[in-house]
Amino acid sequence: MMSFPSSSSKAHSRPIASSSNANASPLLSRQKHSVASTSTSTPFRLSSDQLSEIREAFELFDHDRDQQLDYHEFKVCLRALGFDLKKAEVVRLLKEANGVNHANVAGGVGVNVGEMRIGYERFTNIVEGMIQRRDPMLELKRAFRLFDEEGTGKISLDNLRKVASDLGEQLGDEELRAMIDEFDLDQDGMINEAEFMSIMADDV
Fold this sequence. Notes:
Elements: H1 26-36, H2 48-61, E1 68-69, H3 71-80, H4 87-97, H5 102-105, E2 118-119, H6 120-133, H7 136-147, E3 154-155, H8 157-166, H9 173-183, E4 191-192, H10 193-200
Helix pairs in contact: 1-7, 2-3, 2-6, 7-10
Organism: Microbotryum lychnidis-dioicae (strain p1A1 Lamole / MvSl-1064) (Anther smut fungus)
Keywords: Calcium, Metal-binding, Repeat
Pfam family, one: EF-hand_7
């Protein structure tokens, strides 16, 4: 049977589920671990899942396959990773990545942003900093939306089944139903956002 793992470095100070279920939720542990990394005092490191997501996004939006992103590719790739930045901020990041600043090019005046590019390593460093600065509560809401693909405001058995399949988790319907039953406070057979937040955000 599954339960939700803890959400921060203070994970074991407050049990979320019974001890028999404490380590039984591989399905949601990835999301919770991602949120936990933004709120811990230990040195920040991207998880293997986060690195894979960044790599996949970079390769997907590197349309000309030159191992670099131009302005448009950079902006869309950031948006795909959950960072919907305004044009001025995207330009600023792109200029910084290309060494353009007030000290060496008079504030970048005359520099053609359309000709600038950013490679994978620099892109990963930028995204890592953004993830580290993200609000954990906003991350939980984002995690909920990953499960609630239809935007119904609730996580159903079908949602859990699909996520389990996408993550390569071999979980049967009995296990998935048991997880819902464990945390379905209003007993409607699904997990709503409030229930999800109360489970996942105990220690954020």
